[in-house]
Amino acid sequence: MFTHIQLQFNTGFFLNFVFHPQPVLLEGLALTVIAAIVAQLIGMALGILLAVSGMSRFLIFRSLNQLYIWFFRGTPVLVQLVLIYFGLPYLLGFDLFPSVLSLGPLAVSGALVAGIFSFGLHEAAYMSEITRSGIISIDKGQSEAAKALGMTPGLLMRKIILPQTIPVIFPALGNQFNNMLKTTALLSIIGVSEMFRVAEQLQAATFMTFEVYLGVSVYYLLLTAGWTLIQMLLERNMSRHLSAKTVKRAKNTPTNQLAELADES
Q: Is the confidence at residue 70, as pLDDT, over 90?
């Protein structure tokens, strides 16, 4: 049955695609990285706010937090992207994301802004749970000691809890960014010229389907492998820094340790 199948793979085209990329492909790669970074930062900021509100003593804040997480973790990110980019302007009655948006001195694609906004909202739901898990892992004795010293809840969270939470959640945060690098391919659905969109256009122009998509897969693998290496180095340096702090604080009393944490933060 398979004896007459002939593989049609243009090795020269594939190698040229990978090792001699066109400028438009490199621009798409840069846009992919920028979109991933900005969306991840938005997700982290919103995630911290959601985590804090989810631990509030007020039922309304906890309920809103759970509703947000339920929606954004329970629906596909593609659905959220289409809902925000196409559905939100329809609901509001005006074009919320025009072809070009002026953000001060910058002129950016409205579709790109919609995509980054969508990914940031989606990521916030995951970062909320990750951050919350990191916060509750911190010894409660520090919170009690801080309150005894007269620290306000906001100062306690900013000076004591969050600085210790970040190293705890950093591995999960790094994995989320790795996923974000791949999620940006969905921007092609709304016409953003990120890396996958550019690859689609090159495939349409050359009809080299397998070679182009395999080549763009190589670029995604390089992106994720590069970030994995950076993450490993950051985690190693963070572990050394925390180990040095632990040895230093072991000689102090609990009250002095708390004061030192506040000073360093």
A: yes
Give the three-state DSSP class for 49: helix
H helices of 137-252, where? 140-148, 153-156, 162-183, 195-206, 209-249
CA–CA dist 235, 213 (Å, integer): 33
57 vs 59: CA distance, rounded Å: 6
Q: For residue 202, give both structure tokens.
A: 């090159």
Task: Please state, in angstroms and rounded to a whole number, the distance separating the CA atoms of residues 122 and 68.
Answer: 10
Any idea what DSSP says for residue 94?
S
User: Do 121 and 88 contact (CB within 8 A), yes or no?
Assistant: no
pTM of the predicted model as reported, rounded to 2 decimal places:
0.85
Number of H helices, E strands in the chain: 12, 2
Centroid of chain to Cα 145: 34
Dihedral angle at the C-alpha atoms of 33, 36, 38, 44, nearest 10 degrees? -140
What is the sign, positive or negative, of the torsion defined by CA atoms of 137, 42, 114, 204?
negative
Angle at 186 between CA 182 and CA 189, to 5 degrees: 160
Q: Which range (6-15, 122-131, 176-185, 244-253) has the least confidence?
A: 244-253
Phi, psi angle pair for 210, to nearest 5° = -65, -40
Rounded CA-CA distance 173/126 in Å is: 9
Cβ-proximal residues to 10 (8 Å cutoff; 6+ apart), any chain: 208, 211
Cβ(102)–Cβ(167) below 8 Å: no
178 burial type by CB count under 10 A (0-12 exposed, 13-18 middle, 19+ buried)? middle
Q: Tell me the C-alpha distance between 193 and 201, whole Å.
A: 9
